[in-house]
Every structure is written in C-alpha cells, then in structure tokens.
Amino acid sequence: MFPEDWPVGCPPEEATDANGTYFLLIGSDPPNPDGKDADARSKCEKKGGDFCNDCDCCGISVFPNIHDARAQYHFNRRWCSEKLAKRIWCFVASASLQPAHGVVRVIGGEVETHTNWWPQKDLDVKARCGLFRGCEPTVM
Amino acid sequence: MSLWIPESETTSTDNFGAFTPADVIFDFGGPRTFTLIALDGSLLLAHQCDEEDGQAGFLVTPVTADRIRHLKAGDAGIYDTLNQEQLWYVVVGETERPRVAYRIAFGDVPAECLPDPTVTLKKTAAKSSPASGPVPDSPLALILKANGPRIGELSVPTSVVKATASGAYSSLKRIVDHLSRDSKWGTMSADWWKQFYDLPAHGFKAASFEIRFGWPTPREESAKATDDEEQSRQQIIQEISRMLEAGIKWCADPNPDTLPGVDREEGRVILEAIEALSPPQSGSYIEEFHVGGGLIRLSRPVVLTKATRKQIKLRLDSERSPTAEDILVAGVIEKVDRGLQQLTVRRVTQSVLLGKTSTSGGNKNGLFPEYEFAYEEEYSEQVLDALENESKVYLFGRSRPTGMYTLLQLLKPPSPQTKNPDNPPK
C-alpha cells in the first residue's frame, strides 16, 4: 500500500518489487530523518506547484551500486555547487531492500542506473533511514 | 560551515512570491534548479547552491524560455546562464518560502557556491549534433605550450617537441585505455579508440613551443559512423574532459588524502594522465606546460610545472604501496582478445600474490587457476609474440575491482631456446 495523497497511477505500473542492495546519497552518518535524508517528498510538497503532482517527486533516488552513486554525487557537485554537495550528499549508505519496502524503477538521467524507490506507506522517513547502513564518505 | 550570506544589502522578497517551481530542470531529492514566475510576470531561474540548518540559498536571475530550452537540451551550461548582470541570492527557510533576498554581482559568489563552468545536462547532451564536443565554441581540443628560459623562436630542441607531443598523446591515451575497458561502450575497434588520443595537430608555434590539437576525428575506414557510435564519441569526449579537469583541479589544491574522480581506480588514471601532461623532471628545457583548449575550460589559466609532476608522483607512490595487491604469475598466454586488450594465462606454474598474502604451491595437484590481465597497447607486440610461441612468460600485474589484473610488465624466462619449458615438444 502506498500513500493516498500520491498522484493517480503512482507508483507506475512498470515499477517492480524492490529486491536487492541499493545505495543512497545522504548528508549525515547515520542517516538523519530530521535532515531530510531519504525524504524528497516533504521538500517537494513544501515547494508546491505542479511538480508536486509528479510521481517522481514521491520517490527516493537510489543506485544499484556504489560506483554509480558516486558518479551521481560527482555530477551533483558540478551542477549545483561543491558546498551544497559536500553538505547534503557527503555520505553514501546501503540497504537491502525487500518487496515489503516498496517498488523501484530505473528512471535514468545523468547516471543511467538512477533508480526511483517508492516506499510503502507504513515505512515512514525514520524507518527508511533505519534501513540504510554502512555509511562511508562519498568522496574518498 | 554556515550558509553563505552576501555582504550586500538586502532587498524585498515580494517579487519572488511563494517561490513555487514552474518548471523543474534538475531534481535530486527535491527541485534544485527550476523556473518560477515572479509576481511582476517575469520568468526567473532559481538554482540552489547552499543549504545549512534548515535554510537553503538560491541564486536567482531572469531567464528566457529559449535559454531554458537550451539548458534542458544540454547545449547551454548552468554557470553561463547564471552569470548575468541581474542576480539575486534568496534564502528560503524550513517552509521553502523566501526569508531574505540580496541583490548581488556574480563575481561576489564564492567559487564553492558556483556550478562547474563546463557542466551541462548530460542526459540530453548526447542528442547534440555529432560535430559538437563538450565546448563546441572552441575550434581546438587541446593546446599545450612548453615554456622555459631556453626555449625561443629559433631554439626549440627536438626533445621539447617530443616531450610536448608525447605528453598530450600519453595523457589522453591513459584516460582512453581506462574508458575503453568499460563494457558500456560496446565493442569498438582499437583503431576507433585511437582517434581520442592520436589527435590531429592543427598547428605549431615556436616562440614558446606550442602544439594545437584538433578534435578527435574518425579515421577513414570508420568515417561513416552510426548514430550510436557518434553518441558514444561525444560521451567519451565529455568523459575525457571531465577527467582532465578533475585532475587539474586536484593539482591546484593537492590533498594527499584524496584522489580526483569518482573512485580510486579512476583517481589513479587521472593523476597518471596529468603526470604525463606535466614537464619531465629530468629535462632542463621545459619549466612549465600551459594547457588550454576546449577539453579544459576552466576559468583560470592552467599551468603544470615540474612541482606538479612531483606532487602527483608522491601521491601515486603512496597509492601504489602496501595496500596494492600486485601479483607475479608464471604461465602461458593461451587466449588474447585484441579488441578488448585482454589476455588469459593458463598452465600457470607459479603465482605470487604480493602485498597481502603469498601463494606458491597451487592446489593439491600443484595446479593454479587461470588469470586474466588487461594490457595496454605498448604490450601488444610482446603479448601476441608470447601467444604465438606458446612460451612461458612472467607477468607482473595489479588487481582491479573486476577481479582482473592490469599488466604492468611482461618478461620472458632467461633461456630463449626453450620454446615451452613446461610442455616440451615431442
């Protein structure tokens, strides 16, 4: 079950059960729910606008391997700024996601394996953060 | 670290309204770059560059719909788009609504709060015309100028010419060899890959010796490239540019605890490439290389000195020592993939793993598994010779994350008369 306030048709039918290890860029070690790690939706909602109705806005960006997570960090650092990247994406953590945790779909973008993870309704941001362990600095 | 606050006076936030995105251009964990419609009806671009303690800093500038189209298509950069006379810095709070705004000049923004001058949206950059590189406004890919007190208009020693040309060649080849081993590019011929490091020289200047290299051009036999090949070609040029810039930036502030690039292997490759672009420490003519061209579009001049080379060497030496897993294998090369430049060693009689543990006896039958090595073109002749002769060779290599080894040295045993000492002909 997914949150009722998500747009109609979200998550998309093409998304499949999460099943495997995924990597997440975060800003603190361990992941901090108050720091908005693993929580894209609240930021989108506060900003408002049509984007809030975009299904991707409800998902969380994860990667199937650490190399690609770091490649995304590298792009974000170049695109946004070094300071922002070091502040909010300075760690990479991994979780073994199971079907009970939600569904995933590769959405691509700057890194081909960029995957959206739509968590189940009962998995609040604190529980999501609790799944991710093994933090290490994004930049060696 | 605290949120950057400009020294300029504040201005009203009224015109920014609720700061609601109209069109999101870059989203990662929330909208980071987006347009918004100001209360006066003008189109603005907002770009997040800082965040601290629940506050976020955005650079905001007027923008045209046409510019946004180019930004999305990947043929305009975010840096140039923000570099406008009319620029604000807007701080939004927990509610994502503007709290305070400053009228600023682009030059006031700290470098660490600015995007990279060369970055574009990669996902659409591949759709750009095949003729364009990462910086289509530059006619030259790379300019390498050797400076030194003894280099003048009529006194350019051949060694300077050689060092300049081979510096560019070796540097790019190091990067291209690394990229070519990534299976995502498919199977491309060695000749196809060569275009990226064997660049056409478009001109020379002798006052301080300079070689001007053009963009990679497909060789005649592969001139009719498919769309996929052209797309790969553009992406590879982008990758080369990214790696060179990362290396140059590292050299400007060389931290012995870090490496440039996205991972350790890439970091080593980048430093080796920049090392090749730096003046040789042994020569007495070249004091510094000035590096320019479309592959490297940094806002400041790039000068690589002998000191640069020394710093890189120290960093690479520390990287290569104790933690590296080097291996020495004695055996017969039985299989070679010339396209991928990979070989398989079988009939192994000795294998010594250096760095962590040592093995020398194989399994209970005294047999070892087969080993796979990736090799660079300079070893091609030796590798093919060993394959043809089925002769026992010694291979010295370094482990890679894939389980394969990178060939560092290939030696024949001391007795050349013995064709195959482990399996003599009947």
Structural class of chain A: alpha+beta
Oligomeric state as shown: heterodimer
Shape of chain B: globular
Report the uncertain regions of chain A: none
Please render the helix and strand layout as text.
The complex is a heterodimer of chains A (140) and B (426).
Chain A: E1 16-17, E2 20-26, H1 41-47, E3 60-62, H2 66-79, H3 82-88, E4 91-97, E5 102-106, E6 115-119, H4 125-131, E7 133-137
Antiparallel strand pairs in A: 1-5, 2-4, 3-6, 4-7, 5-6
Chain B: E1 10-11, E2 23-27, E3 31-37, E4 43-52, E5 55-62, H1 65-73, H2 78-82, E6 87-92, E7 98-104, H3 122-125, E8 142-147, H4 158-180, H5 190-194, E9 201-205, E10 210-213, H6 227-252, H7 264-277, E11 288-292, E12 302-305, H8 306-320, E13 326-337, E14 342-353, E15 371-374, H9 380-389, E16 392-399, E17 405-411
Parallel strand pairs in B: 15-17
Antiparallel strand pairs in B: 1-7, 2-3, 3-4, 4-5, 5-6, 6-7, 8-10, 8-11, 9-10, 11-12, 13-14, 13-16, 14-15, 16-17
Helix pairs in contact in B: 4-6, 4-7, 6-7, 7-8
Question: If you had to describe this structure to a student in words, what would you say it looks like?
Answer:
The complex is a heterodimer of chains A (140) and B (426). Chain A is of the alpha+beta class and 140 residues long. Chain A has one domain (16-137). Helix content of chain A is 25%, strand content 24%. Chain A has four helices and seven strands. Chain A has helices at 41-47, 66-79, 82-88, 125-131, and strands at 16-17, 20-26, 60-62, 91-97, 102-106, 115-119, 133-137. Chain A has a four-stranded antiparallel beta sheet, with no helix packed on it. In chain A, strands 2-4-7 form a three-stranded antiparallel beta sheet. In chain A, helix 2 crosses helix 3 (82-88). In chain A, 49% of the residues are buried. The model of chain A has no long low-confidence stretch (mean pLDDT 87). Chain B has 426 residues and is of the alpha+beta class. Chain B has three domains: 10-116, no CATH class; 126-320, no CATH class; 326-411, OB fold (Dihydrolipoamide Acetyltransferase, E2P), CATH 2.40.50.320. In chain B, 26% of the residues lie in helices and 26% in strands. Chain B has helices spanning 65-73, 78-82, 122-125, 158-180, 190-194, 227-252, 264-277, 306-320, 380-389; strands spanning 10-11, 23-27, 31-37, 43-52, 55-62, 87-92, 98-104, 142-147, 201-205, 210-213, 288-292, 302-305, 326-337, 342-353, 371-374, 392-399, 405-411. In chain B, strands 1-7-6-5-4-3-2 form a seven-stranded antiparallel beta sheet, covered by helices on one side. In chain B, strands 9-10-8-11-12 form a five-stranded antiparallel beta sheet. In chain B, helix 6 crosses helix 7 and helix 7 runs antiparallel to helix 8 (306-320). The longest helix of chain B is centred in the middle third of the chain and has 26 residues, at 227-252. At the A-B interface, helix 1, helix 2 and helix 3 of A face strand 2, strand 3 and strand 4 of B.
